[in-house]
């Protein structure tokens, strides 16, 4: 090989392109926090109830259902998205400690605080925007409750709710800490309204052989024999037979659309109001909107759990786009 005295030095390695970061926008006036990944996925969270009201994939396709008449001004629970149910599911007239609370408790109608964000990307060599995610943390403590609610449920507690947006999934997790000197009992659930194209083409798989309470049939206990289809008002509390890590899959036209994996949540509620119930809810719009939604709700609601002083409970769901 000819030795050339002035051969150019090797090109400096192409400078590592900085990894694009997720962006987080805090709109204090609207009480809303929005996060967007460099690849386009986004999530929108209201400080009211720490309610996720939008989750979109990279193409802008909305995965959650939100009523066109959802009240977002903080005066009422949001009809849609992912309302938070705590410390009671539904109403519990026979449970002294929570019998005076509003339906589904106070978490979804309280003003939460935005605690901060953290982003992470894979540190592996060659990682790119593909690996970025963003975690938003929200907090609610007993000291920030209004006096009326404090009087109805006089326990000291801290709630931390985290919303983590990744490219193909959304993770929502809640940590409940008992700061009281006495134990308290609670139920907790993530009341997720999933968007579908046409409920008539929807099936829910993964709950086969699971026992459930059928709230539209006298709260009778039944066993799910096959996949679930929705042909009328449906309101069921399942105890999934296959355990929390087994995905519960929503299919449309036989194709997997979304799945829910639980962590430390023992139950799963499937709800669709259908025609009459949809008509009876003033904030449910359009009235045929029941055809484009199904609630698949991860939680622990079949019985109250006891949290001892100083102890904490953590539960989470991961929603996957498929
Ligand atoms: O999760 C199902 C359910 O408990 C239904 O019984 C129905 O009441 C639904 O929640 C909506 O409750 P909400 O208080 O938001 O109108």
Automatic annotation (TrEMBL):
Pfam families: Aldose_epim
Enzymatic reactions: alpha-D-glucose 6-phosphate = beta-D-glucose 6-phosphate
Primary enzyme class: isomerase
Entry-linked Gene3D superfamilies: 2.70.98.10
Enzyme Commission number: 5.1.3.15
GO biological process annotation, one example: carbohydrate metabolic process
Entry-linked InterPro entries: Aldose_1/G6P_1-epimerase, G6P_1-epimerase, Gal_mutarotase_sf_dom, GH-type_carb-bd
Annotated CDD domains: D-hex-6-P-epi_like
Sequence positions that bind substrate: 79, 103, 108
Chain segments annotated as transmembrane: none
UniProt keyword annotations, A-Z: Isomerase
Record: active site: 191, 297
Domain of life: Eukaryota
A Gene Ontology molecular function term of the record: carbohydrate binding
GO CC terms, sorted: cytoplasm
Protein purpose: Catalyzes the interconversion between the alpha and beta anomers from at least three hexose 6-phosphate sugars (Glc6P, Gal6P, and Man6P).
PANTHER family: APOSPORY-ASSOCIATED PROTEIN C-RELATED, GLUCOSE-6-PHOSPHATE 1-EPIMERASE
Family named by the database record: Belongs to the glucose-6-phosphate 1-epimerase family.
Protein name: Glucose-6-phosphate 1-epimerase
Organism of this sequence: Coniella lustricola
